[in-house]
Design goal:
Elements (H helix, E strand, L loop, with lengths): L1 H18 L5 H10 L5 H14 L2 H27 L5 H4 L18 H16 L4 H17 L5 H22 L2
Helix pairs in contact: 2-7, 3-4, 4-6, 4-8, 6-7, 6-8, 7-8
């Protein structure tokens, strides 16, 4: 139990380090925009768009991304049901949160999971894209902490889960 308390304290400390910059105009504008890259509407739309307009083996990478996106939502929903962790803005005092915040459970970050699940097949298929896509994924995750919606551990787990599902989907499609 002491270990879990220590992990939570570290989680809160890093949450506050990121979240305290909430009032900085440039960061606020940047993170409010970039967070939408992990939203359901964006991730589903981009996968559907790419499925319609890609060809050849690129289409296989897109299909792997689509499968990963669909499959990644299942463990996220199950984990949120069985580990009902409250969002940081509901628990911590003096933290900042975006307008109209989500009220469902915090763990794991669905935005981060979704984004990593769709980019990993592309990172495998077009390895040079990893230079752009992986930092973008980390920024999506960071935006969720900045906006007061997730603890850092929610992001780390979402990144790992999305990467795992994206990797498995890539392997299944390209076997």
């Amino acid at each position: 139990m002491k270990y879990l308390n220590y992990v939570y304290e570290v989680d809160c400390r890093y949450f506050r380090i990121v979240n305290k910059n909430f009032e900085k105009r440039f960061l606020h504008s940047f993170f409010r925009k970039i967070t939408h890259l992990g939203s359901a509407s964006f991730t589903i739309s981009i996968v559907l768009f790419l499925i319609l307009f890609s060809t050849g083996s690129t289409k296989l990478a897109v299909i792997a991304s689509g499968i990963a996106l669909a499959l990644s939502h299942i463990p996220v929903m199950l984990i949120k049901k069985f580990i009902p962790r409250k969002r940081p803005y509901l628990v911590l005092h003096d933290c900042h949160v975006t307008e109209n915040p989500l009220t469902d459970c915090s763990f794991p970050s669905g935005h981060t999971t979704a984004f990593f699940s769709i980019i990993i097949p592309f990172c495998f298929y077009y390895s040079v894209l990893a230079i752009i896509l992986l930092p973008l994924g980390f920024l999506v995750g960071l935006s969720r902490v900045y906006l007061g919606l997730h603890y850092p551990s929610d992001i780390v787990f979402g990144c790992l889960l999305g990467s795992l599902v994206g990797s498995v989907s890539f392997i299944l499609v390209f076997q």
